[in-house]
């Protein structure tokens, strides 16, 4: 008997334990939740008894939230998730009232207490849009609403898409940015659903050019086609298919025509890596033009192989003229074009000279001459304009290079960016292998105590640049620059002086000599060594390039071109120094542009 009792007791205990768990974990919390629901609905009824004006009429639905009942003291004690201190949701919990007859009302309660939720329709309808949930349109285009495909509700079934309220009022297609169009709909219980469609208003560079040009070509003296790219200022030539062509605003260097292809590779290497991602290879116009058609040809005679950088053709120059024959693409220097004449000489834009072979717009030169080079690039047409209005003061920007941060080392920056130091504006030429930053002054320096121009004062028949020889311009530049420019951030560096047998040609020097200096003259083949400003008065300055030929000296003249003839010993010119800033120099502030150059410290 005793064993039998023990057996039944064991069974009872075995059953009691899970029953207890079921009671405490499920049944009791559920009953507690149902009691919360009862408190909630009774409070709502009291609310409407005292606020009868809030009762709905017709098919309207009135809603009171748990938060309102708390705030107005219709519920004295907070409602909690059963057996916790976590309160029930005061914003998601509500009582809705509908009118069933003239004086009859139905109360529908939805209470959300953690896991426990009232078994009523509390979700809004599902909206399915036509088209994508995120679309992109070009700035200036009209926003066309794609609409709603269908609306369904778990209780009401299909809802007419016309019931959806669409609000696109915030979309401004004239300003770049991301906007939201909202779609809102209610079911019969006034459960609301709102979804959004993102509208990205962007300014694709090809769409911008198309809007601003005639047949994709800028004409005359345009002021709204400047582009800041890879630390340099460019002008937009026009559309080339879906892409755009741009040309450097100024000559970057002076190069002999035979050396152009190799020099253009050097130029491309000096573009910021992040900027190169925006470029595409292209076939550029070239070919033979005669004096009779050089000024009128608007067709592409011949094309190069595909390449990243080239120079402008006479076709593009001619196309850009307005009815008065004016064009922003003709520089105030003498710059190479990509065409040659019947005898093989190369055509160049003409600025200061008259009465020389060629038309009124062009003249031709022997391929040995070193003339200005303004590289032409092709940029992907779908590149986005992030800022700017195309003027010189506020050029278009693709944000192709990242902005420098304060305390960033200067040697992490890019060729072409500007620095202000010691009262002068400087430009980054290159970064040396050991981390020093090669810079060139944007204008010639003002010498202390006397004439700002210097000349060779040696008796040598050939004037070869030599920083160790008194009376030599190399010596004067190294010595006098330090008198006018604070030297503390500049380091002594070994330089290489290119020496030519006669005429200088790119990478064709006869020999080189090395010297250790702080300051030197520019090399005509390096970045930004060419004329300073194509739209302002130019100031001449000495170059580092040297010839063994008697009286052959190299300098930039006051019309912005390389003096390519033999020059007398009396010739004088200004100093435009080149130097290396210490690798420890850091950026304090600035954007690296001409108007907002970097300020530096060490």
3D architecture notes:
The protein is an alpha+beta fold and 602 residues long. It is 16% helix and 30% strand. It is built from seven helices and 36 strands. The strands form nine sheets. The chain has a seven-stranded mixed β-sheet with strand order 29-34-28-27-26-36-35, with no helix packed on it. The protein is elongated.
In a nutshell, what does this entry contain?
The protein is α+β, with helices and mostly antiparallel strands and 602 residues long. Helix content is 16%, strand content 30%. The N and C termini lie far apart (99 Å).
User: In order across it, which strands form the biggest sheet?
Assistant: 29-34-28-27-26-36-35
Structural class: alpha+beta
Number of domains: 4
Radius of gyration: 39 Å
As residue ranges, the low-confidence spans are: 354-359
Question: What is the typical, i.e. mean, pLDDT?
Answer: 91
- Estimate the strand proportion: 25-35%
- Overall morphology: elongated
Give the SSE map.
Blueprint: H1 2-50, E1 61-65, H2 66-71, E2 94-101, E3 104-110, E4 112-113, E5 116-117, E6 126-129, E7 134-138, E8 148-153, E9 157-159, E10 165-167, E11 177-186, E12 192-202, H3 205-212, E13 226-229, E14 232-240, E15 243-248, E16 253-256, H4 260-269, H5 273-276, E17 285-288, E18 302-303, E19 309-311, H6 314-319, E20 336-340, E21 346-349, E22 362-365, E23 370-373, E24 375-379, E25 396-397, E26 418-421, E27 424-431, E28 437-441, H7 473-484, E29 490-491, E30 493-500, E31 511-517, E32 541-547, E33 553-556, E34 578-581, E35 586-589, E36 598-601
Parallel strand pairs: 7-12, 13-25, 17-20, 26-36, 30-32
Antiparallel strand pairs: 1-2, 2-3, 4-5, 6-8, 8-9, 10-11, 11-12, 13-14, 14-15, 15-24, 16-23, 17-18, 19-24, 20-21, 21-22, 26-27, 27-28, 28-34, 29-34, 30-31, 32-33, 35-36
């Amino acid at each position: 008997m005793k064993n039998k009792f023990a057996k039944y007791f064991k069974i009872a205990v075995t059953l009691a334990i899970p029953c207890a768990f079921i009671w405490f974990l499920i049944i009791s919390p559920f009953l507690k939740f149902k009691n919360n629901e009862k408190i909630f609905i009774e409070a709502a009824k009291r609310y409407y008894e005292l606020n009868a004006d809030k009762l709905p009429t017709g098919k309207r639905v009135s809603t009171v939230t748990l938060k309102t009942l708390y705030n107005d003291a219709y519920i004295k004690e907070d409602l909690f998730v059963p057996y916790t201190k976590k309160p029930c949701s005061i914003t998601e919990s509500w009582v809705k009232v509908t009118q069933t007859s003239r004086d009859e009302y139905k109360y529908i309660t939805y209470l959300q207490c953690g896991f426990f939720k009232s078994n009523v329709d509390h979700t809004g309808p599902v909206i399915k849009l036509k088209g994508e949930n995120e679309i992109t349109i070009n700035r200036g285009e009209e926003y066309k609403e794609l609409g709603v495909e269908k609306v369904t509700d778990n209780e009401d079934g299909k809802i007419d898409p016309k019931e959806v309220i669409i609000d696109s009022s915030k979309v401004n297609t004239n300003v770049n940015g991301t906007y939201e169009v909202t779609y809102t709909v209610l079911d019969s219980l006034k459960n609301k659903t709102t979804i959004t469609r993102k509208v990205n208003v962007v300014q694709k560079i090809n769409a911008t050019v198309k809007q601003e040009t005639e047949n994709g070509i800028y004409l005359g003296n345009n002021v709204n086609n400047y582009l800041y790219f890879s630390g340099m200022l460019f002008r937009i030539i026009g559309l080339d298919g879906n892409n755009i062509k741009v040309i450097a605003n100024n000559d970057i260097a002076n190069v002999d025509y035979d050396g152009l292809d190799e020099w253009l590779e050097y130029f491309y290497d000096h573009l910021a890596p992040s900027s190169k991602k925006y470029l595409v290879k292209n076939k550029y116009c070239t070919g033979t033009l005669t004096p009779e058609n050089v000024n009128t040809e608007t067709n592409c005679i011949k094309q190069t192989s595909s390449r990243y950088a080239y120079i402008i053709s006479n076709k593009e120059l001619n196309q850009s003229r307005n009815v008065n024959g004016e064009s922003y693409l003709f520089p105030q220097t003498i710059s190479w074009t990509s065409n040659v004449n019947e005898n093989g000489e190369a055509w160049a834009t003409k600025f200061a000279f008259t009465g020389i072979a060629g038309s009124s717009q062009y003249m031709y030169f022997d391929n040995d001459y070193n003339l200005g080079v303004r590289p032409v690039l092709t940029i992907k047409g779908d590149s986005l304009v992030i800022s700017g209005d195309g003027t010189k003061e506020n050029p278009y920007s693709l944000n192709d290079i990242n902005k420098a941060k304060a305390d960033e080392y200067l040697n992490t920056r890019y060729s072409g960016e500007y620095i202000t130091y010691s009262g002068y504006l400087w430009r980054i030429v290159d970064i040396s292998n050991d981390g020093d930053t090669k810079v060139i002054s944007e204008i010639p320096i003002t010498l202390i105590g006397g004439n700002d121009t210097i000349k060779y004062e040696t008796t040598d028949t050939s004037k070869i640049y030599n920083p160790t020889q008194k009376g030599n311009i190399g010596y004067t530049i190294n010595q006098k620059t330090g008198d006018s420019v604070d030297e503390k951030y500049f380091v002594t560096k070994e330089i290489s002086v290119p020496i030519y047998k006669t005429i200088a040609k790119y990478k064709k020097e006869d020999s080189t000599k090395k010297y250790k200096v702080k300051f030197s003259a520019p090399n005509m083949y390096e970045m930004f060594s060419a004329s300073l400003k194509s739209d302002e008065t130019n100031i001449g300055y000495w170059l580092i390039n040297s010839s063994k030929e008697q009286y052959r000296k190299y300098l930039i003249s006051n019309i912005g071109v390389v003096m390519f003839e033999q020059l007398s010993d009396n010739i004088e010119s200004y100093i435009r120094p080149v130097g290396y800033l210490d690798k420890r120099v850091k950026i304090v502030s600035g954007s690296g542009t001409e108007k907002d150059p970097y300020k530096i410290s060490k």
